[in-house]
Recover the amino acids of this structure.
């Protein structure tokens, strides 16, 4: 299970134009379809992973809170280029080296879309990798500066942000293990203090980049 959770960690991050740098919170509803015949059900997978997420962004910082049983909070440390995961009832942080990417991109494109999410007209970034296919619906009104993430190779994040310059409002993932859908249900501009993104003062250990 931990393998799938670490793969999902980067999906929560993908999210437009540099002169519209977004600072605030996006709330998402999440749904899944588990594909493998291994005794795990879609309902169990959903319970582990969670079906709601709050995502916070400010400059190079981001943080997400997820209502699943495993990971509850994920925080990106730009100085260290690490993604920290706070696990329920665990006094040790688990971190991923964001410089390392074990996925291989086969092709990608940006396409026009009829999708309108919360009033935002979206384009879609379509990427095919050795792990599956992803569709990231984005609006340049919800922007990020890709220079802030140029060394964030994990999960192809540097590639996606360099092409979209945006936070995603809807994400569709299709791979051999599951289908997953994220869709924004609220976008709120907020002023967020840097201390909100502080890494908890706990022991930490590295986890492999799947």
């Amino acid at each position: 299970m931990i393998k799938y959770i670490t793969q999902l960690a980067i999906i929560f991050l993908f999210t437009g134009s540099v002169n519209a740098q977004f600072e605030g919170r996006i709330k998402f509803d999440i749904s899944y379809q588990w594909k493998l015949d291994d005794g795990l059900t879609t309902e169990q997978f959903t319970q582990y992973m969670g079906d709601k997420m709050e995502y916070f962004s400010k400059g190079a910082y981001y943080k997400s809170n997820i209502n699943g049983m495993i990971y509850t909070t994920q925080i990106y440390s730009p100085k260290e280029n690490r993604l920290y995961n706070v696990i329920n009832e665990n006094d040790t942080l688990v971190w991923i080296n964001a410089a390392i990417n074990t996925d291989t991109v086969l092709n990608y494109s940006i396409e026009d879309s009829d999708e309108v999410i919360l009033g935002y007209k979206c384009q879609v970034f379509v990427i095919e990798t050795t792990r599956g296919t992803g569709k990231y619906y984005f609006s340049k009104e919800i922007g990020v500066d890709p220079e802030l993430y140029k060394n964030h190779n994990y999960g192809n994040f540097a590639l996606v942000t360099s092409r979209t310059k945006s936070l995603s409002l809807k994400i569709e993932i299709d791979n051999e293990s599951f289908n997953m859908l994220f869709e924004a249900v609220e976008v709120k501009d907020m002023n967020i203090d840097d201390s909100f993104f502080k890494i908890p003062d706990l022991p930490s250990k590295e986890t492999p980049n799947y």
